[in-house]
Amino acid sequence: MPALFLKSLIIVLGILCGFGPVVSVAAPQPVAEGWEYRWGDLPFTAEGVPDWSVAQQPEQWHAIDFPSNPPGRNGRDQVWYRVTLPAGDWQNPVLYIFSADLIVQVWLDGENIYQYGTFDKEGRGRFEGWPWHEIALPHV
Hints:
alpha+beta; 7 strands; single chain; three-stranded antiparallel sheet
């Protein structure tokens, strides 16, 4: 009798689990195209926000296949990267960066949404490691 009960319980639980909620997880969407870089820092306003009008000058931006080690360094130590994020109906979207040397800030639509490390008034700082960065993106 206990064996029959156990078998019945397992069958019922199996059926109930089959009707449980379905969780849909979107596949990662690589941001592999459309990257550009710009050497040098942007001037900052009195409020500590970059002057985006300077960043809108198209001749200062150059295409790059992958946002790493851009050409023409010539002793410069500050670089900006930009890319247009893919459109989609994302659930809890994040930008995953597996390596950013030194320190980093991430800006989206004029808002600083992520920072790793400490920047001084000249936009410089010291080495603070090479962690992976999972940057939560606001829902738009």
